[in-house]
Specification:
This protein is mostly beta strands. It has a domain at about 185-264. It has 3 helices and 23 strands. The chain has helices spanning about 1-5, 145-150, 205-210; strands at about 20-25, 35-40, 40-45, 50-55, 55-60, 65-70, 85, 90, 90-95, 100, 105-110, 115-120, 130, 135-140, 160-165, 175-180, 185-190, 190-200, 215-220, 230-235, 240-245, 245-250, 255-260. A 4-stranded antiparallel β-sheet has the order 3-4-5-6, with no helix packed on it. Strand 15 and strand 16 (about 175-180) form a beta hairpin. The radius of gyration is 21 Å and the shape is globular.
């Protein structure tokens, strides 16, 4: 850590440049909206609104690109593409009349039309959101604010673990918390799967021994209480996984393995 500080490694670069943004529809020369923002801009088209995120500010437009409202977040919105990734939707998502936005430390639920804050849920390191049967499942971690403050320093005594939160979208109340030892990658009805894998690649020699062997850990979680129902492990890591209820396809470099189990 001392070496990190001496070389400037304890500092996190934040882009607070001013950007000119114009929002319009394809094929039209005149933008529907134009303005200045602080921080790299990203536009997230959702079901009923479009969200412009720049730094710690979000500006929300209707589908005709008319500005509805603006809100300031505590931290900048993560600079990732919106959509449903393997770890869930986000950083902006809309479901059942609620706009969800998460930054590095807080998940906020807004009224998409008026911008009123419905609730806030503090959580460090949110990866994505899953929506199923009227509930929200939050992929997050056990990290704390110190991990954000000293994000470039190494603490060998602390291990940050994956956490799954089941949240009531009406109130933001946490129904249960689970630590499945991996990020949740699939939620549908009674089926919730979390996985953690490691693949050192084509490393050989002493470096391979230091990096460790490849592995896969796959667990199924009970949506009622968050308990782990079963765990499956394998001494190799897939390049992709596909889920369809009780059927799981593990795609390796030269093989596809299909797992299936009976549901009582």
């Amino acid at each position: 850590n001392e070496m990190q500080r001496n070389s400037g490694g304890d500092k996190v670069v934040v882009d607070e440049s001013i950007y000119q943004v114009a929002i319009g529809r394809f094929g039209e020369t005149t933008p529907d909206w134009a303005g200045l923002v602080i921080g790299p801009p990203r536009l997230y088209p959702l079901a009923t609104v479009n969200v412009l995120a720049a730094g710690g500010t979000i500006t929300v437009f209707n589908k005709s690109n008319r500005k509805l409202w603006q809100a300031q977040l505590i931290y900048p919105v993560p600079a990732v593409d919106n959509g449903q990734s393997s770890t869930g939707a986000g950083p902006c998502a809309e479901r059942d009349g609620i706009l969800y936005v998460f930054d590095a430390a807080v998940l906020t639920a807004f009224d998409p039309a008026a911008g009123n804050v419905l609730w806030r849920l503090p959580s460090i390191g949110i990866l994505g959101l899953f929506f199923d049967q009227g509930m929200v499942y939050v992929n997050t971690t056990t990290a704390n604010l110190n991990n954000l403050k000293y994000s470039r320093q190494i603490d060998v005594t602390r291990k940050i673990r994956s956490v799954l939160l089941k949240v009531d979208p009406k109130t933001g109340r946490i129904v249960w918390t689970s630590q499945p030892r991996g990020a949740v990658c699939y939620v549908s009805g009674p089926f919730i799967y979390a996985s953690y894998s490691f693949d050192p690649g084509d490393v050989t020699g002493p470096e391979a021994a230091l990096m460790g062997r490849p592995f896969l850990r796959l667990v199924r979680i009970d949506p009622g209480n968050g308990h782990v129902l079963w765990e499956y492990t394998e001494g190799r890591a897939p390049v992709d996984m596909q889920f369809d209820g009780p059927t799981i396809r593990l795609i390796f470099k030269k093989q596809v393995e299909v797992l299936h189990y009976l549901v009582l």
